[in-house]
Amino acid sequence: MNTIISTRNLTKCYGSISSVNNVNLSVYEGDVYGFLGPNGAGKSTTLKMLLGLVQPTDGKVTVFGKDFSKNRRLILSQTGSLIESPSFYGHLTGYENMRIMQSLRNVPDRNVNEALQIVRLEKQKDKKVNQFSLGMKQRLGIAMALISFPKLLILDEPTNGLDPAGIGEIRELIQSLPHRYGITVLISSHLLSEIEQIANSVGIISQGKLVFQGSMDQLRSKSETRIALKTENNAEAERILLNQGLSPLLENGYLTLRGVEDNEVARINKTLVHTGIDVIRIEEQRKSLENLFLEMTGKESSL
Ligand SMILES: Nc1ncnc2c1ncn2[C@@H]1O[C@H](COP(=O)(O)OP(=O)(O)OP(=O)(O)O)[C@@H](O)[C@H]1O
Known about the structure:
Layout: E1 3-14, E2 17-23, E3 26-28, E4 32-36, H1 43-50, E5 58-63, E6 66-67, H2 72-77, E7 79-82, H3 94-105, H4 110-118, H5 134-146, E8 152-156, H6 164-181, E9 184-189, H7 192-198, E10 201-206, E11 209-215, H8 216-222, E12 225-231, H9 234-243, E13 249-251, E14 254-258, H10 262-274, E15 279-286, H11 289-297
Helix pairs in contact: 3-4, 4-5
This protein binds adenosine-5'-triphosphate.
């Protein structure tokens, strides 16, 4: 698995405050890497350092296996980005804006139409950008970032302000990029639900620090499983389970137990029934990803 982006102890301080604090990112080829964190966590600052728009206070950025500080031009020629709101000439059409980008990036004519097709704007390309909806503008911004068919695409909150249909379209589009065009994507968001649906790898940043990095599956497996029992006499059932060396917790009308295997659940059920306590429900409960995110960042997943 080739590493596309790697940072070592990447740090940015503004005065005495570290906005980004010793961050070690690893983004692999073919990833849709979701960079998740609440507002002000340090996402944009990190992405800007990856693009040379902000100078790190400390640490190292390596992209495509090359030191960014020594290979800036080469790396940027193979990287597309959309940071904050895209800027356009509103009095020109989508197509004309794309042509300007084409000449700036010095890429073949055919890339203009191909990129417009990918973002499904080919039919509206002759409209003036002033008359574009927010979703169309976001898609045009992505088309501009794609115009050179880069190896790496960096998108800072690309679905901000879009309605659910617009978000769905951008999600599909981004997910198709690695297998259709071999583009690795790094996308930031403050919405857990969005990253969960779009990314296969995830990094969670909170107050400038990377508090989790791994696959989406690894994140899901961190959400702990517990068994919840509802009986017709929870107080008595609790006493019996405590006597058996278990540590039940009485919460919201349920007795909950952590780390019990299936065969133990069956045994507990049998014991309770034998002592004359009816078991009304046995459920497996998982701490939601939402709660996990809250614990890791101390913030709501969507602010
Ligand atoms: N130029 C700057 N000067 C001083 N502080 C800054 C500057 N840029 C960012 N910061 C601070 O760095 C911290 C991280 O900001 P950043 O924009 O990277 O967060 P973010 O995760 O992208 O948040 P959001 O989702 O709100 O954009 C914030 O506390 C912000 O106020």
